[in-house]
Amino acid sequence: MTQERTAFPTGFVWGTATAAYQIEGAVDVDGRGPSIWDTFCRVPGAVARGESGEHACDHYHRWREDVDLMDRLGTGAYRFSLAWPRIVPDGDGRVNRRGLDFYRRLADTLCERGIEPYVTLYHWDLPQALEDRGGWRERDTAERFADYAEIAYEALGDMVSHWITLNEPYCSSIVGYAEGRHAPGAREGHGALAAAHHLLLGHGLATARLRERARPDQRVGITLNMSPTVPATGSAADAEAARKMDLLVNRQFTDPLLLGAYASDMLETFGAISDFSFRHEGDLKVIGAPLDFLGVNYYYRIHAAAAPYEQADPALRSAFDLGVRSVTPDGAATSGLGWPMEPQGLHQTLLGLTRRYPALPPIFITENGYGDDGTLDDTGRVDFLRDHLAAIRAAMTDGVDVRGYFCWSLLDNFEWARGYDARFGLVHVDYETQARTEKASFHWLREFIGIQG
Fold first, then answer.
1. Domain extent for 315
2. Which one is catalytic: 51, 150, 168, 179?
3. Contact (Cβ atoms closer than 8 angstroms) between residue 394 and residue 291
4. Which of 38, 17, 18 is closest to 27 using CA atoms?
5. How far apart are alpha carbons 168 and 159 in whole angstroms?
6. What are the distances in angstroms from CA 141 to CA 66, 89, 199?
7. Average pLDDT over the chain, rounded to whole?
8. CATH number at residue 260
9. Which of 53, 284, 258, 297 is nearest to 170 (CA)?
10. What CA–CA distances, in Å, run from 191 to 84, 178, 437?
11. Whose C-alpha in 29, 123, 141, 343 is 20 to 30 A from the C-alpha of 131?
12. Residue 135 DSSP code
């Protein structure tokens, strides 16, 4: 095992990842404004057991303790997100200096400990004031995001060299505006596709703002959740289902970003629900500006099967209503959440990106993790990490330029619509006492990283 563990090159980045709404708590403290997740969590039935991120891990007050955990783990990097409503409470206009001061203290302490901050500007917590004006359906939100990115850079650019504009725009747009499972809880067709486009436009506009001000060592990228889609059977119907899911989840985002082109089957797939009037001349040039790196979040592979549409009338369908369902293969190993565990899907994702996109930038695995019930003897998570790290090593051997790995997550946390049942942390959190307890996977990963030298 030692020989395998030392296969990662010198300089490979090891880190953990979190998101502001999932860990910070303190949603009404020091001038923070409400986000769409604060609002969504109050909708009856939207979140399991009516839970919310109101308190979460209380990281806003316990962040020093959490930096100590990173230090003990031995990671050299920490990916965290800024809460837009903590910095610009209404989405534009007044800047909340107390919010910026919180992130400056965190980033400064990380740097003192030799842990490089990787900052994500947007991890789903849109200021509610902007949603009240249409949210990501509206082009103006992309402009406001660029303004916010500039504010964040002016405050933190002296300490932060790696900037991630968006986390998983698929979830923000399709899961939030089409499936309705995440905030703001909409079930739309045209509006959801507009949200996806405006998120990418916001990325491009923010990238330009950051680069106007960047030092030579600054790097700007984006994080996408990637799920390779495969037909559940050899039928033509399932092959078509896999194509549609691949477009919805993957190519709708990767093609504009990495090819500077809209996916060729967008009109065929979505023409009945949208006229694509949200696309403007010049948008692709903004969206497709070269990336310094691409963040890839991988959890599972999608096995797509044809299924009945929810809406018989094509014009009434949401962008998620594609006549497709995901199935779990018979006999597949699954996580504690029932997700298929297929590390070969990560290898497939990385090779597929390299083959489809000739100008692919270096890759960071910005999220990869295992959900369970929070047991301290989490051997399932250890197995998951070992097998997925092996898949990354194999992809690197096959020529994929992977520069780092961020485990999701440092802490058990608020897991969106699942509430607090699903736990992904290397560290257990008792939400009543806020006590942190290192799990078996924490110690395994610490040893693994230590062997890397």
1. 2-451
2. 168
3. no
4. 38
5. 24
6. 33, 14, 8
7. 97
8. 3.20.20.80
9. 297
10. 22, 8, 43
11. 29
12. G
Angstrom distances, CA of residue 285 to CA of 178, 221, 375: 26, 16, 48
pLDDT for the residue 452: 84
Supply the pTM of this predicted model: 0.98
Residue written as token pair 């995440």: 182
User: Is a pLDDT exceeding 50 seen at residue 6?
Assistant: no
* Candidates 51, 131, 188, 367; catalytic one: 367
Q: 3-class SS at 156?
A: helix
Residues forming beta bridges with residue 35, ordered by sequence position: 127
Q: Specify whether 154 is catalytic.
A: no
Which residue has tokens 């296969």?
7
Residue that the structure tokens 């095992």 belong to: 1
Give the pLDDT mean for 132-140.
98
- Report whether 288 contacts 259 (CB < 8 A): yes
Judge whether 143 counts as a catalytic residue.
no
Positive or negative torsion for Cα 283, 284, 290, 292: positive
Beta-carbon count within 10 A of 415 CB: 20
Stated as kind and residue range, the H or E segment containing 60 is helix 59-73
Cis peptide before 409 (omega within 30 of 0): yes
What local confidence, expressed as pLDDT, does residue 1 receive?
34
- How far apart are the C-alpha atoms of 180 and 318, rounded to whole Å? 10
Decide: 169 and 253 in contact? Cβ < 8 Å: yes
pLDDT tens readout for residues 195-232: 999 999 999 999 999 999 988 899 999 999 999 999 99
Say whether 155 sits in a helix, a strand or coil.
helix
Q: What is the domain count for the chain?
A: 1
Residue type, 73: L
Euclidean distance between the first and the last CA atom of the chain, given in angstroms as a whole number: 15
**What's the rounded Cα separation, in Å, for the pair 189 and 203?**
22
